[in-house]
Write a structure and sequence with these properties.
By secondary structure, the protein is an alpha+beta fold. Strands 1-7-6-5-4-3-2 form a 7-stranded antiparallel β-sheet, covered by helices on one side. The longest helix is centred in the C-terminal third of the chain and has 23 residues.
């Protein structure tokens, strides 16, 4: 008679299905200025219209606290101007700012800005957005174009900061 090896019983608890990965856009820009100089311009929400290609915000830097809602407008591209409201979810001055906007019923974006000082005195600026919600998967085919747009935003921030500090 042939012996069969002991096979452990299957667990009684069901295994949760793996959630789909949220689409993410990331762009990294080197800015010839200190982290503090970049941070100052990044938080000057009321001045975004002077440098940002598509975003205009209606808030002052002193309103940068977790839970604050920042109203604004997005324009450009194929869509007409749209009202937006971002809610700040994380602030680690002068290195990290995170806000969210949108809705899980459609698309919710969690947008982060990370500033890292470099040995040569420049700043590595990383802008990322992770998308959630029922329609988030629809963004996957556009991630390449979105990455180019975010690179353009980083370049515009860099030009603004360098113009002010240079």
């Amino acid at each position: 008679m042939k012996e069969t090896p002991d096979v452990p019983d299957a667990p009684d608890t069901p295994v949760a299905p793996v959630a789909p990965v949220a689409p993410v856009v990331t762009a990294v820009t080197r800015i010839s200025a200190s982290v503090e100089d970049v941070w100052r311009v990044l938080l000057a929400f009321d001045q975004y219209a002077q440098w940002h290609p598509v975003l205009s915000l209606d808030a002052r830097p002193e309103q940068v606290v977790v839970g604050a809602e920042i109203p604004g407008r997005v324009s450009g591209g194929d869509t007409a101007e749209q009202a937006v409201t971002m809610r700040i979810v994380e602030v680690e001055a002068p290195c990290r700012l995170v806000w969210e906007g949108g809705s899980l019923d459609a698309i919710l974006g969690r947008h982060s800005f990370v500033l890292a000082p470099q040995p040569d005195g420049t700043t590595e600026f990383t802008e990322s957005e992770e998308f959630f919600g029922t329609a988030a998967a629809e963004l996957i085919p556009t991630l390449g174009e979105l990455t180019k747009e975010y690179s353009r935003y980083g370049a515009a921030l860099g030009a603004r900061v360098e113009g002010l500090s240079g």
